[in-house]
Specification:
CATH class of the largest domain: Mainly Alpha
Number of domains: 2
Keywords: Membrane, Transmembrane, Transmembrane helix, Transport
Largest sheet: 3 strands, mixed
Strand content: 5-15%
Protein name: Cation diffusion facilitator family transporter
Membrane topology: Multi-pass membrane protein
Subcellular location: Membrane
Pfam families: Cation_efflux
CATH topology of the largest domain: Alpha-lytic protease prodomain-like
Number of strands: 3
Strand order of the largest sheet: 1-2-3
Length: 323
């Protein structure tokens, strides 16, 4: 669901940004507005970003190979990180440079109706793209706030498009404000100030995207609800009596690795333990369908060692490590 919803949001954003970029460039040529030039480059960068997200989604679908036995799911994270870099360098830094140039060498705007008309059109188009991203995100967001959704989402495309569209809308308002103040006062410096504000906004969004995508690239565990369901599914109360400790890792947005040490009875036969492990894997996959790579290690639970506490030097987080 998240992949399909993300693709729809990306395509909607790409179509909107391509149309807006052309309109902004035309408005810049007629008016000479630095805000319009910065917004034009911003729209071109956003279009390139959507292309990167689509490319990452396509590459992530490749089958696992001997060299990459866990597949290519993280390609989506890599390309999302590239989006943050492009947004920072092409969009943000260019806007800062252009704003500085306009403030130090101001000139009046010509044919003011071009930038104003294009900005109004762009706000309408970006609003459509933003609405699509919100609509596709809501089923995945559930009861989370938007901040929580952006921070916790394992599929990067929707948060990236959401932040890009939000930044684009705010940037358009800033550009409209800069152009409007330049027209009202007759001072082109306001156009440059609006451009600087756009640059700061884009850099801030790029930093947020980079930090969140970096966390995904490093490897994030499953969410708390999925971890709870996996633990409950692993135990059958007969052969498998408890989960001694467990680690989960996202190999991609829709692929989860589960590694756990499970407690079995000391007098069970090897055949019975093997059958219990197979059954536990089946229950885990039914409880959490994205748990596709599962490694379960049987062990005998030792109450004395459990009472002594986990070995934190060997176990990240230290939780449930004793056996």
């Amino acid at each position: 669901m998240s992949a399909q919803g993300g693709t729809r949001a990306i395509v909607a954003a790409l179509a909107a940004n391509l149309a807006i970029a052309v309109a902004k460039f035309v408005a810049f040529l007629f008016s000479g507005s630095s805000s319009m030039l910065a917004e034009s480059v911003h729209s071109v960068a956003d279009s390139g970003n959507q292309g990167l997200l689509l490319l990452g989604g396509k590459k992530a679908k490749r089958a696992a190979s001997e060299e990459h036995p866990f597949g290519y799911g993280r390609e989506r994270y890599i390309y999302s990180f590239l989006v943050a870099i492009v947004l920072f360098s092409v969009g943000g830094l260019f806007a800062l440079y252009e704003g500085y140039e306009k403030i130090t060498h101001p000139h009046s705007l010509e044919h003011w109706y071009w930038p104003v008309g294009v900005l109004v059109f762009a706000i309408v188009a970006e609003s459509f793209s933003f609405r699509t991203a919100i609509k596709e995100s809501n089923p995945l967001r559930g009861s989370q706030s938007w901040v929580q959704f952006v921070r916790r989402a394992k599929a990067p495309e929707l948060p990236v498009v959401l932040l890009e569209d939000l930044g684009a809308l705010v940037g358009l308002v800033l550009a409209l404000g800069g152009v409007g103040l330049a027209l009202l006062t007759g001072d082109g410096v306001w156009d440059g100030i609006g451009t600087l504000c756009i640059g700061v906004l884009l850099i801030a969004i790029a930093i947020v995207l980079a930090l969140e995508t970096k966390s995904l690239l490093l490897g994030e565990s499953a969410d708390a609800e999925s971890v709870r369901r996996i633990r409950e599914a692993a135990v059958d109360g007969d052969t498998v009596t408890r989960v001694i400790h467990m680690r989960t890792l996202h190999l991609g947005p829709e692929e989860l690795l589960v590694a756990a040490k499970i407690a079995v009875r000391h007098d069970d036969t090897a055949g019975r333990v093997a059958g219990a492990i197979d059954a536990a894997e089946q229950r885990i996959r039914e409880a959490v369908p994205i748990a596709r790579v599962i490694y379960l290690e049987p062990d005998v639970y030792d109450a004395a060692r459990a009472a002594a506490g986990p070995d934190r030097a060997k176990t990240p987080g230290g939780a449930d490590a004793a056996h």
